[in-house]
Amino acid sequence: MSGQDTARRKVIADSLGVGLATGAYGISFGALGTSSGLDVAQTCALSLLAFTGASQFAFIGVVAAGGTPVAGALTSVLLGSRNLFYGVSLAALLRLRGLRRVLGAHFVIDESTAMAVAQREPGLGRLGFWWTGISIFVLWNLSTFLGALAGTAIGDPRTYGLDAAVGAAFLGLLWPRLTSRFSRGIALLGALVALGLVPLGPAGLPIIAGGAVAVVAGMLWPRGATP
Length: 227
Fold this sequence. Notes:
- The protein has twelve helices and no strands.
- The chain is mainly α and about 230 residues long.
- α2 packs parallel to α9 (about 120-155) and α8 packs antiparallel against α9 (about 120-155).
- The chain is globular and about 65 Å long.
- About 35% of the residues are buried.
């Protein structure tokens, strides 16, 4: 077996490992989605069409708190906007055209981007992107369906204290990404703005406003400065 074949096998194995670990987490989204007021079809449609974990958890968090679907959608779009920048950085590597470009855009998430840019060769980067994105997509949607069925049996999430699980799950997705003093400072600023607006605005508005402030602050704050 050549060195290139060995490298390809390693990338595929690593991608499947990431896919299994990440995709399995969809079961929690499915359970929380249906136990927070969505039906099985709506919950599965979110995973199928949105396919970005943080945005999905944010959406059901807003809806479960009494916010409108529009407020939940705005929050999801705000959080998912980072994928646009991922796509820009991956364009030269993937070199997709036509329908493949549309399909590839759906798989641009944190994990597939990380696997793609971590490879030493463009070919291996493309391999890592597709294997990671597709494996997570398949497993995330399958586990969402299984979790949604379980969520219908749970009933009212407040009975088990699961009304706090959406926020906990979202924090679990966010925390590993706060790897610097800069990112932690920006996150803290957004959280303070959101908390301050909780008594003043309808459900959904605080997280939208806090997220918007964090985005603007992240763009304007000098990277060399300490937040």
